[in-house]
Amino acid sequence: MSKNKNKNTGFKGTESELVAMTRDLDELHHDVGMPAMWEGVSSMIDNLRDAPTVRSTNRRTFLMGVGGAVAGSAALLSVGLNPLHAGAATIQKPSPKSVLRSAAFPPAGLKGDLAVAAVAASLENLAVYAYNAGLSAATAGKLGTVPPAVATFATTALSQHTQHAQAWNAVLAANGKAKVTVVNPTLAPTVNADFAKVTNVTGLANLALTLETIAAETYQAETSMLSSAAAIGLSSSIQPVEMQHIAILYYVLGEYPGAQTSKGATLAFSPMNQAV
User: Hey, where are the domains in the chain?
Assistant: First the structure.
């Protein structure tokens, strides 16, 4: 896995600025990102080739549950502006059985847009896992001093990744396919190994930055390979959110908040060399 190197040893921004960035991120997500994402899910479900009765029932069932998913995310954020207290987030380390071998992923029987949906869901699950692990380590005091604003951003990003995974899984479920509840098997071993080396906020931010970059570049690469306009719309509604996470993480690291090489050279366009 490619790493974004940074020699800093702590948070280089100001908490007030990071709080403002996170607030803007969350408001933009709720006002623009989520409506576009749910519309993309609805359009994909409408375009499924299943029998009309099956499609209608699954779509209606999912849309009824959207409110609950959003409410659950709001509850996660309402844990407090300082979500470092016990119980704010718990790490669920994947067991050997929950991490599929790369050769078996995407699951057999998934092709085209549904295969992309499975991969996307597994990447979102991995991001949820990583942010949960970071918050858990911070709560346990394993990362030194963690500014509350950093934890609030991590909690917000975790919530958004959770919703992204729910969106892709809703498409799979509506097509009669099993939801993807495992983390991406190709990246999971490396993420676990890298996380074991994290000892401070900078290390955690670098790991999160790498995961967000992989996700953003994967969405960018795979969007052009999707066959339906509905799938393209869903993917395109999520990719910008990953880019927003990247920009904020660069701020946390005290670096230029845009696409750049591993050595810090700025790029006019985001590359796709880390796409899975």
Answer: 15-252
Q: Is the pLDDT of residue 3 over 50?
A: no
Burial 142-168 (b: 16+ CB within 10 A, else e): ebeebbebbbbbbbbbbbbbbbbbbbb
H helices of 140-262, in order, are: 148-174, 188-195, 201-223, 229-252
Structure tokens at 32: 């623009």
CB-CB contact of 242 with 275 (8 Å): no
For residues 216-235, one letter each, b for 16 or more C-beta atoms within 10 angstroms of the residue's C-beta and e for the rest, the string is bbbbbebbeebeeebbbbbb
Decide which of 93 and 76 is more confident. Answer: 93
Q: Are 130 and 245 within 8 A, CB to CB?
A: no
Is the CB of residue 117 less than 8 Å from the CB of residue 172?
yes
Residue 78 token pair: 């309402």
pTM of the model: 0.74
Contact 133, 143 (CB under 8 A): no
Going by the DSSP 8-state scheme, the letter that residue 187 receives in this structure is T
- Residue 51 has a pLDDT of 36
8 A C-beta contact, residue 119 and residue 184: yes
153 vs 1: CA distance, rounded Å = 24
Smallest CA-to-CA distance from 126 within 62, 208, 228, 67 is with 208
Instruction: Compute the distance between CA of residue 123 and CA of residue 36 in angstroms, rounded to an integer.
Output: 20
Calpha distance 36→32 (Å, rounded) = 6
